[in-house]
Design goal:
With 218 residues, the protein is an alpha/beta fold. Helices cover 35% and strands 16% of the residues. The longest helix has 14 residues.
Length: 218
């Protein structure tokens, strides 16, 4: 039952970007910038497509550890490594076929765009930085065949996509339970919000009635 709370914006947006928008070809390469709820959901959905390289980029070691458990083939800590250079090296100078950005920063949108290959590479960003900020891209890269798109909700149709994602969860193909970082009682809600704001946890779960939690989603 507790997993059902995840069937909201993050899952529909992240997994929706993969299943509705990019639909990676087998053996293609994908880079994910930002491993919050959207990024982790996109990562899980990417595993459905037999990609050769799934590169996870974040600044938090714990999120990168979880990404490795969820199927990322390469982990890049952006606090110690330039992700653009790392992706270039991982792909032997080819860059990736697709990038998904959900970190919410101008810098990461630009990095995600830079990291895709020419002649068909696609960058999709789901974040919305502070109003008034502008991203900067080299028009020549667009002429060379790079593409960039924004998305609101991963083009998901809840009536169609929620049952599909639920079935994938039942089959063990979307291990959503791994997104929960820590459980809190209702009396600990302020602690949970502080931990979330301070990036101590990724997805805190508030157990209003513990008797209905920890049940399988059916």
């Amino acid at each position: 039952m507790d997993v059902a709370v995840l069937f909201g914006c993050a899952l529909l947006t992240g997994a929706g970007i993969v299943t509705n928008m990019i639909r990676p070809e087998p053996e293609s390469s994908v880079a994910l910038f930002g491993l919050g709820g959207i990024g982790m959901s996109a990562l899980m959905a990417t595993n459905l497509y037999n990609c050769s390289k799934i590169i996870a980029v974040d600044t938090q070691a714990e999120k990168l550890r979880i990404a490795g458990e969820l199927g990322a083939t390469h982990l890049v800590n952006a606090t110690t490594t330039d992700p653009v250079k790392a992706i270039y090296e991982i792909t032997d100078g080819n860059n990736v076929d697709y990038s998904i950005e959900s970190a919410g920063l101008i810098k990461t949108i630009e990095q995600a765009f830079t990291s895709i290959k020419r002649n068909g590479g696609l960058c999709v960003f789901a974040s919305h930085p502070t109003q008034g900020q502008k991203i900067s891209v080299d028009p020549y890269e667009l002429i060379c065949g790079k593409q960039i798109k924004g998305t609101w909700g991963g083009m998901s149709d809840p009536a169609k996509d929620i049952p599909m994602f639920a079935e994938l969860y039942r089959q063990g193909k979307l291990p959503l339970e791994k997104l929960f970082s820590k459980r809190y009682s209702l009396l600990q809600i302020n602690e949970a919000l502080e931990d979330l704001e301070n990036q101590i946890v990724g997805r805190p779960l508030i157990e209003i009635d513990p008797s209905i939690c920890k049940l399988k989603f059916v």
